[in-house]
Each structure stands twice: as C-alpha cells, then as structure tokens.
Design a protein that fits this description.
about 450 residues, alpha/beta, Rossmann fold, two-stranded antiparallel sheet, flat
C-alpha cells in the first residue's frame, strides 16, 4: 500500500511539471531551459525530503485516511514554503510566476485526488477475503480483551471471529462470540476458516495448548502466543534474542546497535565540521567583538553539564550574561537582569548555542539529543522523577525532540521537567537518522518563528 501511494504521488508531481513545461514551451513562455530543469530536480527532491522528514507514508499514518490526509496537507505546506525559499534565495525571476502558481495548484489538486484513490483502494482491499487474517483468540481474560482492542484499532486486515474458552471462565457478555471450548479450538478454526490463533493462555496453564501448537502447523494455521508479562512488571517491555535466549529490556534503544551509533557519529562530524568552517569561522570574531564591547569577561561561557552515563563535560556557549556568581545555580528567566542586551539577541535567535558544535566535533555532544542540564538540576530532578536518569543513556544534544515541541528554556515546575523527560525517552526509543534530520529541520523552522521560551 505504501509503495502504491509513493508511486502515485511521484507520478502526478512529475506529470504536472512535465505537462505544464511542454505547454508553456509550446507557447514560447519558457526561454531558460536550464533553470527549469534545475527547478524540476529540486521540486522532486524537496517533496521526497519533506515526506521522509514528516513521515507522510509511515505505516501508522496510512492506516487512517483522516491522519493521512492531515499529514499530507502539512507536508504540502512545508513543500510550498521550501519552493518559495528556493525561488527567493536563488533569485529565479526568469521562471514564470504563472507557471509556479499553476504548477502548485495542479499538484495540490492531484495529490488530493490521490488521497481519494487511496481511500477507494483501501476499501477494495479490505473486502478481499484472501487478504484478511481471520483470528480466533484462545482464552477470555483481561489480556484477551486488550488484544481485541489493539487489533480493532491497529490491524487493517484482521477479522476477529471469536474466542475459545471454557464456559465456567466466562462471567460476562463478550463483544465477540465464545465459539467453543479450548479442546475444540482446532475444529472451530477449520469450521470458520481461521488463519491465525492468538493464545492468551500459556501452555503451562493448560496442557492442551501444547497439542494445539503442533496441530496448528499441520493444518496451515499460524499459532501466536501472547505472554502476560504484566504479572511481573507493569510497563511496556521489549523482547530481543541472543540466539534462542530471550532478553527482556525495559526500553528499546536503537542506538545500542554499533552501526546506528556509527551512522549518528559520522553525521555529527560532517554537519558540525561544515558549521564550524562556514559559519562559526565568521560568527566568532564578529559576535565575540560585540560581546566584548558591551561587557567585560570571556567571549565563551563554559559550564559543567550532565552527559551520557551521568558523566560531566564543559558545554560551550557564547556568553550572554554579565559575569556573575549564580550562573551554575540559577537558570535564566524572563526579565533576568544578568542578561546583556547583546545576550538577549543571542538567546532569542539561539545564536548563543552555536559554539556547541565544537562539543559535537569533540564527541561530548550530538547535534540531536536530550538537552544537557546543570549538575544541580540533575541531582534535584533525579530524586523527584523516577525515569529522569533514563535520558542520560544518550549523548546530550544541541536540539532535541522536546525542544521542537516547545519544551525548552526555563523549567518552572516538576510537570514541565517530567514532560521534557518523556519526550527525551520517546526520542531514545524511536531514534533513526531520519528522525534526527526531521528534528534539525523543525529546529530551523522554529528559528524563523518566535518561540515563547527563547529569552
């Protein structure tokens, strides 16, 4: 389904561009063919990049037509913004404005049409019996009810037939019928043409399950066991294997993989090197001089911050305050008299954070990760919040998932810090290189807007 959607969108985008280009050229409205050719490549690359960053075609989004339509609209707005910036910064006045308006209008209409085509295809496939997994659930208990809820909400091609359970274990009306006893599960599956059995009963609880596992394979029925790990610990768990040995973890950590860590580090080195060479080489002397002209003290502010595995390092920033004795004890707050006039500008535009690319190059930080806190705050909040130290499993970052969701700057309450920690843990458990690119892109967008917590 996702491949079909990607193919349809790329087809209409290219068809609109090429058709309009040929039409305008036939009317002698296109003269600089090279500019249009470059714009064509940029047009395609921009759409693909935006879709990757905002995850337009992710399985979670395409499952729901409403969700897919909404995120597609957001992606198209970002796409239009990037196209306009490209035309503005490269002064491409030679490209017809009528061409651009007609092109963007045509693409938006075609993408909308694609969404309705997707809806028709989606409904068509949902009705095809050979694509549907017909499920019988073994056991009727809280775990089985939770499984039903998840299957109803998340599985596109799942049809729940009913339960197999002993009558004496059922004490309430069920949403799906209780078809038969556990001993008759296999016959029931054959009768209802079931393709899958989900067992919420462990073999140790009922020895008949062992026979059912063996016989299900013989009858081309997939048998899936749902262990009730909630009796041991009440939180989400992750299961991995070392050969045939199951390993249960409290958190999923993609960056525990050496290859993932290597990719993230290479990305950090490349980006930080470019920033240092092309931006900081210009910014340091200019900003440094402006800082020194306003107040005495060093150009850079160095402060001990908490790092990966609760180690500490000196984080570097452009100095935005008068030299004071409270810098390691008190966060900056709105109306803080310690902040200089130049410092207010640096903090409002986030330019004060740029020297941290030196920390990234040294390997003390990453471009994306949990923001490093003062040692004092780490000590305080680690005793207040149970999961606070989980964020220390990662290298700290210049920007992060919490920051692009507005959770930056001063934390006045424990609830604000708890929300920040939750975002940091989500980032740790869902990391990908494309997520880093997405966060960087959103951070850049925030720089052009006004952030309430940037002061």
């Amino acid at each position: 389904m996702q491949v079909i959607l990607i193919g349809l969108d790329l087809l209409v985008i290219n068809a609109c561009f090429i058709t309009l280009a040929l039409l305008f050229r036939s009317k002698s409205l296109i003269t600089a063919l090279d500019s249009y050719t470059n714009f064509y490549y940029f047009f395609n690359l921009s759409w693909i990049s935006i879709c990757i960053v905002v995850k337009v075609y992710s399985e979670k989004n395409v499952r729901s037509f409403e969700s897919f339509a909404r995120i597609s609209m957001n992606a198209f707005l970002y796409f239009m913004g990037i196209v306009m910036l490209y035309l503005f910064f490269f002064h491409l006045l030679i490209i017809s404005r009528i061409f651009i308006i007609v092109l963007l209008s045509s693409v938006s209409l075609c993408l909308l049409t694609n969404r309705f085509i997707y809806l028709l295809i989606y409904q068509y496939f949902r009705k095809k019996d050979y694509l549907i997994n017909r499920i019988v659930i073994l056991g009727y208990n809280p775990l089985a009810k939770k499984l039903v809820d998840y299957l109803e909400k998340g599985a596109i091609n799942a049809e729940i037939i009913g339960f197999c359970e002993e009558e004496e274990n059922v004490h309430e009306l069920t949403h799906y019928p209780v078809l038969d006893s556990i001993s008759q599960t296999l016959n029931t599956c054959k009768l209802h043409s079931a393709t899958d059995i989900y067992s919420t009963i462990a073999p140790e609880q009922n020895l008949l399950v062992y026979d059912l596992i063996r016989n299900a394979d013989q009858n081309c029925i997939r048998f899936k066991l749902i262990p009730d790990l909630g009796i041991f610990i009440k939180q989400k768990l992750y299961i991995d294997y070392i050969k045939d040995l199951p390993i249960i973890s409290m958190h999923r950590e993609p960056l525990e993989d050496f290859g993932s860590r290597a990719r993230k580090r290479i990305f950090d080195i490349l980006v930080s090197s470019l920033v240092i060479v092309f931006l900081l080489s210009i910014m340091v002397p200019i900003i440094g001089l402006l800082i020194l002209l306003e107040s005495r003290g060093p150009v850079f502010f160095r402060q001990l911050r908490s790092a990966k595995n609760n180690k500490s390092f000196y984080m570097i920033k452009f100095r935005s305050m008068y030299v004071n004795e409270k810098s390691d004890l008190q966060q900056a707050h709105r109306g803080d008299t310690r902040i200089t006039r130049m410092g207010r500008f640096l903090r409002r535009t986030s330019l004060d954070e740029f020297p941290q690319f030196f920390n990234v190059l040294k390997g003390e930080m990453s471009i994306v990760g949990p923001r490093p806190h003062m040692l004092k705050h780490t000590d305080e909040y680690s005793s207040m919040l149970n999961k606070y130290m989980v964020r220390q499993f990662l290298k700290p970052g210049i920007t992060g998932w919490a920051q692009v969701h507005g959770l930056r700057g001063e934390t006045r309450t424990v609830d604000q810090m708890e929300s920040r920690v939750e975002h940091d843990i989500w980032y740790m458990e869902n990391w990908s290189l494309w997520l880093d690119v997405r966060i960087i892109f959103l951070t850049m967008l925030n720089l052009f807007g006004r952030e309430n917590n940037a002061f």
